[in-house]
From TrEMBL:
Name recorded for this polypeptide: Beta-barrel assembly machine subunit BamD
Cross-referenced Pfam families: YfiO
Key words, A-Z: Cell outer membrane, Lipoprotein, Membrane, Signal
Keyword Signal: yes
Source species of the chain: Nonlabens ulvanivorans
Transmembrane keyword on record: no
Domain annotation Outer membrane lipoprotein BamD-like: ranges: 39-214
InterPro entries, sorted: BamD, BamD-like, TPR-like_helical_dom_sf
Length: 264
């Protein structure tokens, strides 16, 4: 038993005094640089970051700054430290405008912001920022190496914003808050013209306006039903084969029945 404990302690000491720990404690930056390259090859990014944090300030303004900066940013990105990777990539772009890695850094900085975008149900401040950063890259490098990927990320983020806006409007509708629902769906249709939720929004706008009309004072019903009819005509013109077509037709039949019964 005692021999086992001794061996265990020796193993722990061996690990604690291994090459990485030696480099971490060393005052020789060349030792740290060599270990960083080894760790990056082995994809041990967290350990590499620890060493980078020790030496990066000492190499700013030197011939090695450019190569170290891009490696540091990549290591941060691979550890999913996206706020810091975004910062380091953007700093690289500003500090090394003539670098061959400038386009790569510009894209990866924007992609770091993309990863900070929250799910659609939460605040989309980071999504807006990521879209702006990706658009900056696309504008700067329209035929760039990463342009296709950047456009794909933009589409994903726009879909997220579309969904958030649509779900907010739909929530008003389902809670029978027809005035804000109508306003929200109208804004959605204008502000999200290419959205996959467009026929959904157009249908719920009809339904919201129709139900709002029915809850109105008698003298206001005709005018509000006319607006629902206008929304219906737009809907069937744009989406004649929509999954909501039958429901929309039923609303229109109800509107016509109401007009007949009330001599409108």
């Amino acid at each position: 038993m005692k021999n086992y404990i001794v061996l265990l302690l020796l193993a722990i000491m061996a690990v604690s005094c291994g090459p990485y720990q030696t480099a971490l404690k060393s005052t020789d930056n060349e030792v740290k640089l060599a270990m960083i390259d080894t760790l990056l090859k082995r994809e041990k990014y967290s350990k590499a970051v620890n060493l980078f944090d020790q030496i990066i300030p000492q190499y700013r303004g030197t011939d090695k700054a450019e190569a170290l900066s891009i490696k540091y940013a990549k290591a941060l990105y691979e550890t999913r430290d996206y706020p810091n990777s975004a910062y380091q990539y953007e700093r690289f772009v500003q500090s090394h405008p003539a670098s061959d890695n400038r386009e790569y850094a510009a894209f990866m900085g924007a992609k770091s912001h993309y990863h900070m975008s929250a799910v659609y149900s939460k605040s989309q401040v980071n999504t807006d920022r990521a879209l702006a950063k990706l658009q900056d890259y696309i504008n700067l490098y329209p035929d760039g190496e990463y342009a296709e990927q950047a456009n794909g990320l933009v589409s994903e983020l726009r879909f997220k914003l579309d969904r958030k806006a649509y779900e907010i409007a739909k929530n008003y509708h389902h809670r029978n808050r027809y005035i804000p629902a109508i306003k929200s769906f109208e804004n959605f249709i204008v502000q999200h013209p290419g959205s996959e939720f467009m026929d959904d929004a157009q249908f719920y706008l009809i339904d919201s306006q129709y139900l709002y009309a029915l809850k109105s004072r008698n003298e206001l019903v005709p005018e509000r039903l006319e607006l629902a009819t206008k929304y219906y005509n737009t809907f069937v013109s744009r989406f004649p084969t929509s999954e909501y077509r039958e429901d929309a037709d039923e609303i229109m039949e109800n509107i016509n029945d109401y007009k007949i019964k009330n001599n409108i």
